[in-house]
Amino acid sequence: MTHETFKDTVFCLKDEMYRFAKRFVMSSDEAEDVVQDLMMKFWQKKEELAQFGNLKSYALKSVKNECLNRLKHHDVKMGFADFQLHRSELYQIETNNLKEQIISFINGLPEKQKAVIHLKDVEEYEVAEIAEILEMEQNAVRVNLMRARTKIKEQIQNLMDFENRMIDNL
Fold this sequence. Notes:
By secondary structure, this protein is mostly helical. The protein is built from nine helices and no strands. Helix 2 packs across helix 3 (28-44), helix 6 (98-107) crosses helix 9 (138-168) and helix 7 (111-122) packs across helix 9.
């Protein structure tokens, strides 16, 4: 594979890989590191990449696996309790912006639901593609998507109810 071919087939996926990685690691720097490390690995294995039929799917699977490995390593390094406390503090930051609230609701979802809702509603993948990327059954993708959307809807409704009560008390 030539440099030009690599650039046209693999490197062009870097922005999408970054956005997907950021959903897992929630840090811009860490997401950039994930993408950079994977690009280096892909370049080193550039001749083997031709074996993979759907290169985009392979790249996003690689992002998912790399992020999960980093999160596991992070858990071990910080200790489970410290990591949970840190994560809770991040989620409890209050915002006045509904968009930021919704993003925090999405980030609070279990990893599978977060990945499914990101791929479906942000990246606009089809259910079959998501199933391939996340190595899940299509029905499992649909169930996780429905559960994620239901949780987000409930949280938004709770937020709106709370804000309405606050307005009524004024």
